[in-house]
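Pipeline run #58 for the internal structure catalog. This entry was flagged by the ingest filter as a single-chain record with no existing model, so it goes straight to prediction. Upstream metadata was stripped on purpose; only the residue string is passed forward. Reviewer on rotation: M.T. Logging verbosity set to normal.
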Amino acid sequence: MVVIFIAVGGYVVMSLWNLLMPVVFHLGVITFWQALGLLVLAKIIFGFGRGGWGYRGHWGHRRYYWKEQMEERLKNMTPEERDKFREEWRRRCGRWKHYFHFKRQNKKEASRLPF
């Protein structure tokens, strides 16, 4: 049964490729074995699809685990420890802030804007 499913999948990929790709992208036609290779490559890249679109993958059940752990850690810290922790992360990640730094405008400048 699995062999039939793989064969049909390869035939479908080959047929769709040979029908669409030469016309749309001016690519060459492929053989059945090349279609099977494409199918395997797509499965490796995009996953083997356990359960369809609703499947969350290996980490799905632990989606917010890191956030819960961080909230728990911050909740158990003293205010001084929390401030020290935040300063450490600002020191580590603060180098990106100059990319998002916008010059503040005073009210007089803002009122002259045409929009």
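catalog note: The helical segments are 2-24, 32-46, 65-75, 79-93, 107-111.
catalog note: The mean pLDDT is 78.
status: ready for reviewer M.T.
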